[in-house]
Amino acid sequence: MTATAPVETESGPRGPAALLARYENIHPVYRLIIRWTFIAALTVVAFWDSLASLAETSRAGGIGAYVWTVPAAAILVAIGVARRNRTELPIHDRQTDIIVGTMGLVLALLLQGVLLQRYALFFHLLRLDFVAMWLFIVSCCIVLFGLRPVIRFAWVWFMLLLAFSLPYYLAVILFGGGKFAAGAVTLLIAGLGTGIATGRTQRRGAIGSAAAWIVGFGVLLVVGVFFPNAPIQVYQQVPALTAICVVGTVMYLRSRRGAPKRILERSVEPLAAKQVWSGVPLVIVVALVLSFFPLPAVTTTAPISRSTPGFLEPGRPLAAPTGWSTTAVQTYEQVQRLYGDDAVLVRQTMTADVGNVRWDKLSRPRTLVVDSIVSERPFAFGVYPGRVLYGLTAARLSTLRPVDLGMGVTGQLLSVVDDDLLVTWNSLQFAWGSDDIAQRVTIFAVDNHEPDAPFPVPSGNLFPTLRTLLTLLFRGNAVLDQRTPTFKDGELLTVFGRALVGAQFTDTGAQP
């Protein structure tokens, strides 16, 4: 008998090795799509709560919805940058990519897990979670594409960093705070983006940026004149994106007169970072960890009650409850910079008709200050809490205590130690209305019972507000918590608040 030699039925690598070899042979364009799809999926997993919060901001009409414009503009800018010839050297160091990418991912974890909670009261004003998202995406690109390709699109990454909301809010305040101001500030994104996308030379970039400003302002004026009641997102997104698309397309067609029209005038080069499998587990683990960090739930803004006393009118004083008289009325129209067009803060000084020994040992009539704001942008109440409106950078605030004010309205009681006024005061805040228009009412009682006692003064002026915002940015809010609050006037504010709420329904004849 003769032995039969084994027959080799198949040659080449099998299993994971075969899959890897097949991936390496895929065209660079498809590998590019696979990696970007992977990064996008991880971003959705890691920051799902942030994206859902942004969608809620858009639904509520908050000016923070401008963030949707940033990635759309960045994609258009990236197309313009990608059309330029690849200039980075074909030098690649995977160790450097992993080190730099890991540092960015760790920073994203710290920002989302630690710093976000430190600025919990100003979550909507700062949106530090979007900064963490930016760090995560940049770090993933460094790990999966390499450091040099990421640097080549440095201006695009700078544009995406505009999702950090504080500079945008400051600019909107500077321009007046209304819908038109929000749209005009968004044109900064369009002007910068168009200049980068068309800027093969400095002169060409300057022309593109100027043209984007002209087109954008033209569209913005059309929206403001013919569609004044359009949602704020229309003011923010339509002029900016129209300017980038129109100017970019016109300048592209002008530069390619008499030549073939192609999106990319150069061939797609092979991806610099080929061996990326070692970095895939890293970005997956970080994305999963980020997904477990909750968004801040702390707020100093009273929830908006749907129980409202009829029609809400900006600038209309509140009816004084029985046993109290309005002794002074003052209006602050400057708050339009914060709370939108037509918003007016009405300050009413109300004094009790007779004294009560329960609230003053000498039975002197107590004086309270009632501030009310009607805004057609109720979401702004959460963006600019009282600490911003009243410039309370040195005040120590207690935790909120819920108070039932009747008629389906719930208020929030707060104790404050104000080192600027050198007094301790309590406040009661409540809000009512709808998603389209709402009123926030804040009642103050200070521990100084004299007629000339100092009360917190609202400020809608530009420079005090800017100073407050910048101070809070560097200081945060955790260090200014009041650990042992005292509610000396808690009973007074509760009784007065219930009477004030009831008086509004009685005055208008509305039913809760």
Automatic annotation (TrEMBL):
Q: Does the keyword Transmembrane helix apply?
A: yes
Q: Where are the transmembrane segments?
A: 32-51, 63-82, 98-116, 128-147, 154-174, 180-198, 210-228, 234-255, 276-295
Q: Which UniProt keywords apply?
A: Membrane, Transmembrane, Transmembrane helix
Source domain of life? Bacteria
Q: Does the keyword Ubl conjugation apply?
A: no
Q: What's the protein called, per UniProt? A: Transmembrane protein
Q: Which organism is it from?
A: Mycobacterium hippophais
